[in-house]
């Protein structure tokens, strides 16, 4: 039995899907919490290279302890259906939480400008949030009740039914580590116009997305380019879009890459309590050492109260054995 300071703790891998700044007080507090969390972490998984860089800087973690694995999309759940599109109009779809970070202020101004310039433009907006009133105000002030539809919050299973009704997908986010919404939109065959922020430029190839600066004039220009391409029938075939997304972001590929990371973590040596305390000490939050020590003492108490050797250990799952048993049962 090792001494208390030599007691070895389990290995940990943490996924990180967010981008945070470094200037305001909330970001400083969040970054310090991240640094504490990653101090004893074996590995971290980010969804984009931009996210990785942000995590390395915020968490003060070695770059070789951070991997980049994007999110996956079920392309069978997000299939195109061009027959659902209106023939005499161009529908721009927005699926987003209606908050400042998602650029709702930009969306509101764009609605007013683009609807004034193009009479065939209609908006289909799914999502809810504290900024919804801004879109409602623009719709009422400009008299666009018949051209701007606010659907409110939707279940994820309902999103595809909205996307297939659109021609163009608009994303006005001010910060984004990856943006699943644009991948789901392309999987349904829409052309994407998006702000060029965070990890978004890494997600889709140039022929499937139009990237712009997060300003109203730039987004307006991007939408005009998309409308022109649509009128000239230069959009990529919706079903081809779906196949390309399936090739890049299928669950089998993403799960396999994640499994490689987990396997590498399991091969690393377990960290001792003394090592964990030293790592947390380097984060500069000394009181947190008391928390770690308290948790350790609680674990020791539970080990004494309910010894681990009395707890059933989960057996290793072997899919081949189960498949063989199923075949034998089917033969019987």
UniProtKB/TrEMBL annotation:
<dbReference type="GO" id="GO:0006506">
    <property type="term" value="P:GPI anchor biosynthetic process"/>
</dbReference>
<protein>
    <recommendedName>
        <fullName>Glycosyl transferase family 1 domain-containing protein</fullName>
    </recommendedName>
</protein>
<dbReference type="InterPro" id="IPR001296">
    <property type="entry name" value="Glyco_trans_1"/>
</dbReference>
<keyword id="KW-0472">Membrane</keyword>
<feature type="transmembrane region" description="Helical">
    <location>
        <begin position="285"/>
        <end position="302"/>
    </location>
</feature>
<dbReference type="GO" id="GO:0000506">
    <property type="term" value="C:glycosylphosphatidylinositol-N-acetylglucosaminyltransferase (GPI-GnT) complex"/>
</dbReference>
<keyword id="KW-1133">Transmembrane helix</keyword>
<keyword id="KW-0812">Transmembrane</keyword>
<keyword id="KW-0808">Transferase</keyword>
<dbReference type="Pfam" id="PF00534">
    <property type="entry name" value="Glycos_transf_1"/>
</dbReference>
<dbReference type="GO" id="GO:0017176">
    <property type="term" value="F:phosphatidylinositol N-acetylglucosaminyltransferase activity"/>
</dbReference>
<keyword id="KW-0328">Glycosyltransferase</keyword>
<feature type="domain" description="Glycosyl transferase family 1">
    <location>
        <begin position="87"/>
        <end position="229"/>
    </location>
</feature>
